[in-house]
Each structure stands twice: as C-alpha cells, then as structure tokens.
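ok so I'm stuck.
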Amino acid sequence: MNIPCRDLIPILQAVLSAGGRVRFTATGGSMIPFIRSGEVVELEPIAFPDIQRGDVILARRADGVYVLHRVGQLSAGSVFLVSDAGRPDGWIEADQIIARAVSVFRRGRELPLNTPGARRTGLIWMRCGSLATGALGLYLALRRRIRLGGREQECKSKLA
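replied:
not stuck anymore, here's the structure
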C-alpha cells in the first residue's frame, strides 16, 4: 500500500514523539549508493543537540517537500542538508527536522547509517558529488557487462 507523504508524516511523527522507531520505504535516487529507491529505512526520534555531521535525517524543506538527506554542516539551530548526489537542500531549521535514519535494509541485511564510520563515509561521498555519482554509474555499467558476459552485445547484434 502506498501512502502519500502528507498522510504518512503525521503518523510517523506520532510514533516518533512517543519514542518509537518507524520503518518506511524510501523512493528516489538522491541518496544512492547508501539508500536506494525501494529500500526500507528505519528512523528514530532525535533532538537537535544530538545531530552530527554526516547523519541522514528526514526533514521538511521550506517549500514543503520532505527529504531524507545528509547533514553537511551544523550551526546554532539549523543544519545544511545535501543529497549524496551532491544537490544541496540548503539550511533547515531545527523545527523542520523529523527524525534520523538509523539503518537501511538491503537484501535481507541491516546496514547502519548512524555509526561514526557510516557518517564519515557518507560525508566523503557527498563531497565527491557528481564525480562519485559518475564513477558509480560507470562501475555499475561495467559490472552489468561483466555479469552478462557479452550476451547483451550478442542480443543486439542478432536483432540488427
């Protein structure tokens, strides 16, 4: 069942404000390779003083769009959010922050997002921006080609 963000967020906030954790399915590609579209992400409540650079947080931007992006910078009462694809969301005020992502579930495994190592790796990736995204695209294309063992080319040549 798909629930629009405008309907889902109040439910998430109610569970989080009671101290619970919630899971939802992320959509979009702005956080590849750490969070892929269709993967389940677990969120926990967070107080602003506990946010650290590199955390992945769910927040509502000034334009009303909900994003699950990385904290690039911190200042008194606000954070600067950036996607792992390198697109900045800008400064988000503390009252716009909903939760912190704790982990992502991929192929039956839980991968932490809020450990020091995960935060550090995410910040490095984020700083590389489009260069990292381009390198990932090239890697995935090569991996696909190797897995197919040239079959993709054979199929195309037979169709021609």
